[in-house]
Request: fold
Amino acid sequence: MIISIEYDSCWQNSILNDKAESRTSPARKFNKSKSSGNIQPIGENTILGVLYRLTGEQRPLNKIQNSNSCYFKDIEEKITFAITEKQTSENELVMLINKSNSRTGEGKYIGVIKDDTALFFSKNAPKLWSVLYLSLNEIIDFINNPNLIETDGSSMPRDILNRLDEIAEMPALQTIEKRVGKKIFGKQKQKERIKTIDKSDLKTIDKIEKMIAKFDEDIDSINKNTDFNKESNIVLKILSSLEKHFPEISKNNYLKKGGEIIAIRLYAAALYLQADTLEKSGKNMSKLYVFQKSGINKGSKTIHGFSKKGFNGVRDFLNKFSTGGSKKAVKTPFLLRKESGKLNIALDVESIRAEEIKNMINSAGVSSFYLGKKGLAYVDDISIKEVTR
Reply:
């Protein structure tokens, strides 16, 4: 028995894993959309799904195979298929949304913050968040000499987020090594470049040599610059202070590659210092802390959404306190492959069984269907004859 199918614009990408987590679970997890191996041709599961759909089944293949009414179960090994003609194959950029419950949109939250959230609406919350509203110079002084900040700052979530956006725009503090390192890297690139230039190309060689000399001048200028040296010393002093405050954290963890500190790391550290000084002054901070029950920070006190060296993002910060639950993931660009062509499904069965299957297909009256995921497919012809082996 041969069932001939024509299909158009059918997806060839495996968006979900090919198999469920277990035979009893209908769920299939989201496949890595960036994986180079997710181009999946039409397979056995696809063909079985099509046959059940054509005979009137509406249930997912997983449920059919785990039920007692699995019509093709006894002949699964006798079913083969072949793509007889590929007419077109094209790529299209689409936007995917992973709607799994475990994934939320990064940088987003939804709903209203619960009004009993101590982190924002308790008596001591304005004093805790007050450090966020200090200038960068004031934060540096506070880290080096952490005296309690008595003034209140807005503890409203919207104001905190707006302030965090402002902090993110602040320039990083750089060491001399960072500034000089940029120039040394550029100089080295030109030295490597000059090796590839033909020795007869004197004009280009002269130009590159002048660039190398300019890098040397810049390096000398940076080393002599009073402001740059002052800023570098500030960074070194901050690192020394942070090491004393938080000995469990290496001071190098505050530095980005090359030797600079971004402002949010200083504000996050200051937030913990303010919480500590408030606690030492007799304020009850227990409801403003999260006590870690597992992981590398087990037993430690943390401020939700912040570590001692940074901000974890809006999603981790606010979603827990929302009345509306977590917002689902945003769209992700994905290059999708679509194909059109013709397919033959061969069933090596007796003529009586073949007639029965044909009658089931005609009775179900399925005019069109998906071949795998999306696209359009339909039965072009059903012929009952001996299958050629």
Q: What stands out?
A: Residues 20-24 have pLDDT under 50 and may be disordered. Residues 240 and 251 are 7 Å apart (CA to CA). The domain at 2-98+334-383 is CATH 3.30.70 (Alpha-Beta Plaits). The longest strand covers residues 79-96.
